[in-house]
Design a protein that fits this description.
Elements lengths: L1 H8 L5 E7 L11 H5 L8 H18 L7 E9 L5 H14 L3 E5 L3 H11 L3 H7 L7 E5 L5 H10 L2 E4 L1 H6 L6 H7 L3 E3 L8 H16 L10 H8 L1 H6 L17 E4 L12 H8 L5 E6 L2 E5 L2 E2 L4 H21 L13
Parallel strand pairs: 1-2, 2-3, 3-4, 4-5, 5-6
Antiparallel strand pairs: 7-8, 8-9, 9-10
Helix pairs in contact: 6-7, 7-9, 10-11, 10-13, 11-13
Length: 339
């Protein structure tokens, strides 16, 4: 994280840097079916743990509160399957000492759940609860494979769920968000991996939660306004800045977007939020302001050389893909043809 921090800070974006730590010597993670099949009892390293906590402290000391408060720092345990009880306790203690949130990837695969049951005797949320890691400072990413007991633990503790709906859909599973919400978990929408379009995230979150609810009168809950709140106030709560961010109110930071409502796919619109969530596209955003400063205006990014970044990303991507192809044919799952 420290290698990227300076470049990210110069973008003008509001950022929360999270240095992710693991202290397992023999568990790679994220857990896969292949990794589960050859897994052994986890071994944990005090040296790795101390090094990780030192990286967190250095990142915090250097960047927390920088750029007029735009930059925050959270500690993070990478994964339940790669974290010792001692690491979990150290992460939470650091967060409480400095009044921060903290985060972890949780219950994101069946293999992870099976690994934790096999080697720790409990499912991932129960492992975290046993070692004092759940709570209202924690926002847990994913929570795709949780049962009723898991949901009860998460809800009782007030753990925030970061819901990457589009990424989950790509993986072929959707977390039981309605049940988590009903149990008392605040929900925050999030992007992940190759699903970085927040319009898509909100839209997928809306549709999949409606399907999963199985209401007597389907399609009424949640509403587009609920998804917007999960993406704005929900995100602000997750990063412990709800008093400053997440809504347009006197006294809050001027973090906002300017939306071009006169687009073919947004008119006519009786409720612009509904039209926006159902049909919106990133190109609808005309300008973006963070902390009262435009970082994009009239669709031109002001703080970065967008064209050169795209060109460099394309160059790097093509180089990596050539290396992948040179290693042998790429089999696409579910298709007989090789790419």
């Amino acid at each position: 994280m420290s290698r990227s921090a300076a470049a990210l800070a110069q973008t003008g974006l509001r950022c929360v840097f999270a240095e992710s730590v693991r202290d397992s010597e023999n568990v790679a993670g994220p857990m896969s079916p292949e990794g589960l099949a050859r897994s052994e009892t986890p071994r944990f390293s005090p040296r790795l743990r101390d090094q990780g906590m030192q990286r967190i402290n250095e990142l915090f000391t250097t960047w927390h509160g920088a750029k007029q408060g735009r930059i925050s720092v959270f500690p993070a345990a990478a994964l339940a399957e790669t974290a010792s009880p001692e690491l979990l306790q150290a992460i939470r203690a650091f967060a409480e000492k400095h009044d921060l949130g903290y985060t972890i990837h949780l219950s994101q695969s069946r293999a992870e759940v099976d690994f934790m049951v096999r080697h720790h005797g409990v499912r991932p949320p129960a492992f975290l609860a046993k070692h004092g890691f759940l709570g209202p400072r924690l926002f847990a990413a994913h929570c795709r494979y949780v049962d009723n007991a898991d949901i009860a633990l998460l809800g009782k503790s007030g753990t925030i769920i970061s819901h990457q709906a589009a990424m989950a859909a790509n993986r072929g599973v959707i977390p039981p968000i309605a049940a988590l919400r009903a149990a008392g978990c605040p929900i925050a929408n999030g992007t992940d991996n190759n699903t970085n379009d927040l319009f898509e995230v909100m839209r997928v979150a809306l549709l999949t939660e409606r399907i999963s609810r199985n209401d007597p009168n389907p399609g009424l809950r949640p509403q587009p306004e609920d998804m917007l709140e999960d993406a704005t106030l929900g995100g602000a709560r997750a990063v412990r800045q709800a008093k400053l961010l997440g809504s347009l109110e006197v006294g809050k930071k001027a973090d906002l977007i300017v939306l071009d409502t006169q687009r073919a796919h947004l008119v006519p619109a009786g409720r612009i939020v509904s039209a926006w969530i159902h049909n919106g596209q990133p190109s609808d955003i005309e300008s973006t302001m963070v902390d009262g400063q435009f970082i994009m205006r009239n669709r031109k990014v002001l703080t970065m050389d967008e064209d050169s970044i795209i060109a460099e990303a394309d160059k790097v991507g093509r180089r990596i893909w050539r290396q992948v192809q040179a290693a042998g044919p790429v089999a696409v799952p579910g298709r007989s043809r090789q790419q």
